[in-house]
TrEMBL record:
The keyword Manganese is assigned to this record: no
Compartments where found: Membrane
Keyword line: Membrane, Transmembrane, Transmembrane helix
Claim: Membrane is one of the keywords in the record: yes
Protein name (record): O-antigen ligase-related domain-containing protein
GO cellular component entries: membrane
Primary localization class, coarse: membrane
Any Pfam family matching the protein: Wzy_C
Entry membrane topology: Multi-pass membrane protein
Domain O-antigen ligase-related: 277-415
Residue ranges crossing the lipid bilayer per the database entry: 49-68, 74-95, 115-137, 157-174, 186-211, 231-250, 271-287, 293-310, 317-337, 408-429, 441-461, 467-483
C-alpha cells in the first residue's frame, strides 16, 4: 500500500508536477446489441443488411444507365423484377431480425408521395380495362379501352411499380447518416465514371457507343445514353451531389476521435479530389452541347450552395448571391475552354425552339380532346400520330412531347396526370424541411433539393424522367435526402 492510500488518498510532501491534460474530446461509437452467446444482436444484423442493400441500390442505379439509359421495355421489366425481389427479400429478412420494425413508408410524413403515385398507378391500370369509356379518335376509330395502346400501358405500369419498390427500399436503408453519406459519394463517383467513359468514347475511340456506331448526335458526348439532353441531366445530378459533398467538407468539421492527431477540418487534398470530379462532369456536360442540361446543373448547384450558406447563418439573399458567384467562378474557366459548342447552339435556337412551340401547341390540343381520361400511359407516339399536322415537320418521328408535364397530362388526364408532379414536389419539400431542421448531416438533404430543382427545370423542355435510369437516380437521391435518420447509434 502506497503513502497516498495510507493517508486516505491525501499525499503529503513536495507536490509532483502534473502533466497538462489534453482537452476533452468526444468520439462517436456504435453501440450494438450482443447476445449472451456473443453473436451480433438484431440491431447490428439490421445495420449490416441495410449496408448491403444500400450498395446494391447504388449499383443498380448506376448500372441501369449502361444499356442506353434502360430506355427499352426489356430492361424496364428486368430492373423492376430485380427491385421486386430485393424489396421482398429485405422485408422478409428484416421481419425475422426485427419483427416489430415499422416501415418508413408507413410513417405519416412519408405516406403522401407514395400514396399519390399509387392512385396514379391505379388510374393507369383502369385505363387499360375494356369498358368502352374511350372517346372517339380522328378518322372514326374508337378503342375498346381508354388507353390507345393497352399493352404498352400495362408494360409501363410494371415500370412504375419498379419505381415505387425502389423508393420504398431506399427509404428503409437511409436510416443512418454515415450510410447515406457513403451512398451519396458512391453515386457521385459512379456518375463521374460515366462521364469519363463518355469523353473517352468521344475524343479517343472515334465517337462511338459501346454497342457500336452512333447514328444520332454525332460529334457530341452521349455516353451510354442515346439522347444528349437526358445524359446531361444524368451528369447534372452528379454535379449537384459533388457540390454538396465539397460544401460539406469545407464548412462542417469532422468528429475527431479521442487521441487522434488528425485535423478535424478536411484537408485541401480531400476537398480538391471531388472538385476534380465536378470539373470532369461540367466538361462532359459542355461536350454534350446541352444548353438546358448546363443551365439546370448550374441552378441545382446554386440551390445547394445557397442552402448550405443559409445554414451557416447567412441571410437568404446574401447566401444566394454568394452561391451564384462561386458557381460562376468555377464554371467560367471550364466554359471558356470547352463551351464553344454550347455557345454556338445558344446563338442559333430559332428553328428548334419554333419546332417545339408548335409541338407543344398540338399536344395541348390533344389534352383538350381528353382532359379527364387521357390517352393511356406510354401511348404518346401512336396517339400523337393521329393529331400530327403541319407546320410541324413530318420528317421526324415525335415519340416524346419534350415536356414531361404535358406528357403526363396527355397520357393520364389533367387530374391524375398531376399526381406524380405533386408527389415530386412533396419529396423536394420534405428534403428542404430536413435540410433546414437537421442539426447536422444536412448536406445530402440540400443535395436532394438541388436535384429536385434540376429535374423540375429539365422536365419543362425535355423528358429526363421518362428515361428509367434517370428516374432511378432521381428517386434514390430524393429518398435518402428526405428519409428520417435514427437518433440512437444502436438503431438502424
Amino acid at each position: 500500500m502506497n503513502d497516498a492510500n495510507r493517508n486516505g488518498g491525501i499525499e503529503f510532501g513536495t507536490p509532483k508536477k502534473v502533466a497538462p491534460q489534453p482537452k476533452l474530446e468526444f468520439e462517436e461509437i456504435e453501440v450494438g446489441e450482443v447476445q449472451s452467446d456473443g453473436s451480433a444482436g438484431p440491431s447490428k444484423l439490421a445495420r449490416k443488411l441495410n449496408n448491403v442493400f444500400g450498395v446494391l441500390l447504388v449499383a443498380l442505379a448506376l448500372a441501369s444507365a449502361i444499356p442506353a439509359g434502360s430506355n427499352v421495355p426489356i430492361f424496364w421489366a428486368f430492373w423492376s423484377g430485380m427491385l421486386f425481389v430485393m424489396l421482398a427479400a429485405h422485408v422478409a429478412i428484416m421481419a425475422r431480425i426485427e419483427p416489430d420494425r415499422v416501415l418508413q413508408v408507413t410513417r405519416p410524413r412519408h405516406r403522401l408521395a407514395p400514396l399519390l403515385c399509387g392512385v396514379y398507378l391505379l388510374w393507369v391500370l383502369f385505363q387499360t380495362l375494356p369498358i368502352g369509356l374511350a372517346a372517339g379518335l380522328p378518322g372514326g376509330g374508337t378503342p375498346s379501352s381508354i388507353s390507345v395502346m393497352a399493352d404498352a400501358s400495362l408494360l409501363g405500369a410494371i415500370r412504375q411499380l419498379g419505381y415505387l419498390a425502389l423508393f420504398v427500399l431506399a427509404l428503409e436503408v437511409a436510416g443512418r447518416n454515415d450510410r447515406v453519406e457513403f451512398m451519396t459519394r458512391l453515386l457521385f463517383w459512379g456518375i463521374c465514371l460515366h462521364a469519363l467513359w463518355a469523353m473517352v468514347a468521344l475524343r479517343i475511340l472515334g465517337d462511338i457507343h459501346w454497342w457500336g456506331e452512333k447514328t444520332a448526335y454525332q460529334g457530341v458526348a452521349t455516353g451510354t445514353f442515346i439522347n444528349r439532353n437526358n445524359f446531361a441531366a444524368f451528369l447534372g445530378v452528379g454535379v449537384v451531389l459533388g457540390t454538396a459533398i465539397v460544401a460539406d467538407l469545407v464548412n462542417v468539421p469532422r468528429v475527431r476521435k479521442a487521441g487522434s492527431t488528425r485535423n478535424p477540418r478536411a484537408s485541401l487534398v480531400e476537398i480538391l479530389v471531388p472538385v476534380v470530379g465536378i470539373a470532369l462532369l461540367i466538361v462532359t456536360i459542355l461536350a454534350t452541347q446541352s444548353r438546358m442540361g448546363l443551365a439546370a446543373a448550374f441552378l441545382g448547384s446554386v440551390t445547394v450552395l445557397g442552402i448550405m450558406r443559409v445554414r451557416q447563418g447567412r441571410r437568404a439573399v446574401l447566401a444566394a448571391a454568394e452561391a451564384f458567384l462561386v458557381v460562376v467562378l468555377v464554371a467560367m474557366p471550364l466554359f471558356a475552354l470547352s463551351g464553344a459548342g454550347v455557345l454556338e447552339r445558344s446563338l442559333d435556337i430559332g428553328d428548334e425552339q419554333n419546332g417545339r412551340l408548335v409541338l407543344w401547341q398540338q399536344v395541348l390540343g390533344m389534352i383538350g380532346e381528353r382532359p379527364i381520361t387521357g390517352f393511356g400511359l406510354d401511348s404518346f407516339y401512336p396517339a400523337f400520330e393521329l393529331f400530327h399536322r403541319p407546320p410541324l415537320t413530318t420528317a421526324l418521328v415525335w415519340d416524346y412531347a419534350h415536356n414531361s408535364y404535358l406528357s403526363l397530362w396527355l397520357e393520364a388526364g389533367i387530374l391524375f396526370g398531376s399526381l406524380p408532379i405533386i408527389a415530386g414536389a412533396v419529396l423536394i419539400w420534405r428534403s428542404a424541411v430536413r435540410a433546414w431542421q437537421a442539426r447536422t448531416h444536412f448536406a445530402v438533404s440540400a443535395a436532394g433539393v438541388g436535384v429536385g430543382v434540376l429535374m423540375l427545370i429539365s422536365s419543362a423542355v425535355d423528358f429526363p424522367l421518362e428515361i428509367q435510369a434517370n428516374m432511378f437516380l432521381f428517386l434514390l437521391v430524393m429518398a435518402i435526402a428526405s428519409a428520417d435518420r435514427r437518433r440512437r447509434m444502436d438503431e438502424d
